[in-house]
Amino acid sequence: MNLELLESFGQNYPEEFDGALDCISLAVTCSFNKRGTLLAVGCNDGRIVVWDFLTRGIAKIISAHVHPVCSLSWSRDGKKLLSASTDNNVCIWDVLSGDCEQKFSFPSPILKVQFNPRSDNWFLVCPMRHPAVLVNIDGTHKIVPMDDEADLNIVASFDRRGEYIFTGNTKGRVIVLSCPELKNKASFKVTQGTSSATAVKSIEFARRGDFFLVNTADRVIRVYDSKEVMTCGDDGEPEPIQKLQDLVNKTMWKKCCFSGDGEYICAGSARQHALYMWDKNIGNLVKILHGTKGELLLDVVWHPVRPIIASISSGVVSIWAQNQVENWSAFAPDFKELDENVEYEERESEFDINDEDKEVESQIEKLDEDCEIDVTAVDPIAAFCSSDEEDIIDEESSLQFLPIAPEVEDPEEGWGAPGSMPVPTQSTELGKRPADSESKENTQPKKPKFNSFDIKLENAPVEEVHPFLANKVKDKQSSSLSTNSNKNKAGRPKISSRTSTDEKKRYD
Fold it and tell me: Are 335 and 314 in contact, with CB atoms under 8 Å apart?
């Protein structure tokens, strides 16, 4: 399909609810690959569900972690998937086979992980109450420098091309560092009003253009131009292009993101399942999408190419898209839609092929001589290419779709032999192994062992609890308090001093 024709003239943002993706278990976070053909969803039981977004079906389920998955990131070619869990582990997965390639253990909880947009050898880790860490796949790591050693609440993100790392702290200080040298290139301070600073909650970059947004604690989303920030240098004062906020409700923003073309900005409310969308160039609010009342938003991502948004609330992935109205008259002006069959009388020689018309043949021959069409060359699609790319990723080398493996209920003889697919063995009662289990284990191909690295961080908070788990504890405490109060209410009624002796005997 020609992607240039998908761009609608006018609004290019979703307008209504377009279904939900049920991952069986509760969804926590999600992420699109570079082409938008696959959607990875991290669940609270540690599994990663990969959806084929074109067919809206599950393409693969990876039994990744034991604890909930809190962050996901795709590699550039879509063959690897980076995941972080609340058990302080970060893993790199082979998407096609579902095997773990590398595992990195951290001493403190992980809030965010991100692959370098241009290199699969580096990825960024944001631990809780600790400076960001730049990790290489060989196990080495570098601590990203920070402005104030006392301020440990750091957020960090790669820029669009992976050349720089942008970090922000609770004092509103944003520092730009080169990657992987980690040298200071520029810095500025996000201020509220004239003097007071505001904490930086997240930094997000657009897939197109040089713009990025800063979500701050004062409930304002500021949009900056990275070129202007770099030209201002250290301790610069770049002016934000736009300041976006909810003036009526003063909404706190849970997650913000750019549209695929970088023309729109979407922000999810931290209070309810509501998505706000602004035009980046004008700064006006164009649409508000409301989900189910009473649900809290967990994550929001925009499709890389299409005007589609995926949001997570109450463990379900909601899809928001445009209302597609079929208008066949746009392709054929004389096309008419009929409610019922109509008999049509054919005019004489209306559908006859006129072989005697030599003028048409001569015109076709002239067209063939004038224009030469190359049917073998494959031109890159502009919607998938960046402006600075010379070595464009070949479509054959990138992973866009996953093959579906059939589930065999009654395998035949020879199934599971070397060179064929492995057969899952059923667990026996009380841990007893059948007699032929050893022979089956020998015939099954062994899973390759992954490399495990223990990342040691100085002064890392070891006893900190991940915010996702802390919220669960609060919910359990509130639910237990409510159940206890209900039990007290449902118990035996208190006997007041005014109660008669007969009523006391009745209760006793």
Answer: no
